[in-house]
Design a protein that fits this description.
The strands form two sheets. Strands 8, 9, 10, 11, 12, 13, 14, 15 and 16 form a nine-stranded mixed sheet that branches. A seven-stranded mixed sheet has the order 1-2-3-4-5-6-7. The chain has one domain: Purple Acid Phosphatase, chain A, domain 2. The two termini are 21 Å apart. With 223 residues, it is α/β, with parallel strands linked by helices.
């Protein structure tokens, strides 16, 4: 099960969750990347109509993982909204729910490429990146890391496995000794294969591990 897995990065132990979140026990911090709230309404504005349930589903999953870990700090790792107007499109109950979540503990909104400005009315504070212990938390992974370790999002990593004649795909965490890239948390967000060019050069193949999200647990294997 997911609570049996640990990822060590720098000098910190990280606990991955089936939702795609990461909990850092030493700092009582829950990290979540790429919620892409209001993605459905954003697509609808472009003539692409999908069931408008992504925000409700994502917020329900967010509330569930918060109840599991009871963090003192909540860090959103960028692209919390699918576009810059996403906060304004939050309907009343969804706005109230997210505001209550953000005010319940210290909340930090790291900005992303989809939401270059932090929310203005939801509570919490905005940042380009922050330090957590010896780790840098940012939205987009830094191409060349020297004397730092990072947790990033942005790329929505995913992978596939062939098991007993079936090919299974899913979102995943991917990490080596210096970097962890988190899966997208949002209900409508897809996953980009870790074999794609976007991941080229980001990880040392020999030390890279993958934690693929399954229905009832995480599946760990080497790259």
């Amino acid at each position: 099960m997911s609570n049996q897995h640990r990822i060590v990065l720098g000098d910190l132990e990280l606990v991955p969750h089936l939702s795609g979140a990461i909990f850092v026990p030493a700092h009582h911090t829950l990290i979540i990347s790429d919620l892409h709230l209001e993605q459905g309404t954003s697509l609808a504005r472009r003539g692409i109509h999908v069931p408008p349930f992504d925000t409700a589903s994502t917020l329900a999953m967010l509330a569930a993982v918060i109840s599991v870990h009871a963090p003192k700090r909540l860090v959103f790792l960028g692209d919390s909204f699918h576009d810059g107007d996403g906060e304004a499109r939050l309907q009343g109950p969804h706005f109230s729910q997210l505001r209550q979540i953000a005010l319940r503990q210290d909340t930090i909104w790291i900005v992303g490429n989809h939401d270059p400005e932090p929310p203005q009315l939801l509570g919490g504070v905005g940042a380009d990146e922050i330090m957590l212990g010896g780790l840098t938390l940012r939205h987009e992974p830094k191409r060349h890391l020297k004397d730092e370790c990072e947790i990033a999002g942005h790329l929505h990593p995913g992978c596939g496995l062939s098991l007993r004649g079936r090919h299974v795909r899913g979102k995943c965490f991917v990490a080596d000794a210096k970097r962890l890239i988190m899966p997208a948390f949002g209900a409508y967000t897809g996953a980009l294969s870790i074999r794609s060019d976007a991941f080229h050069g980001l990880f040392e193949a020999e030390t890279t591990k993958i934690w693929m999200i399954g229905k009832s647990g995480l599946h760990r294997f080497s790259l």
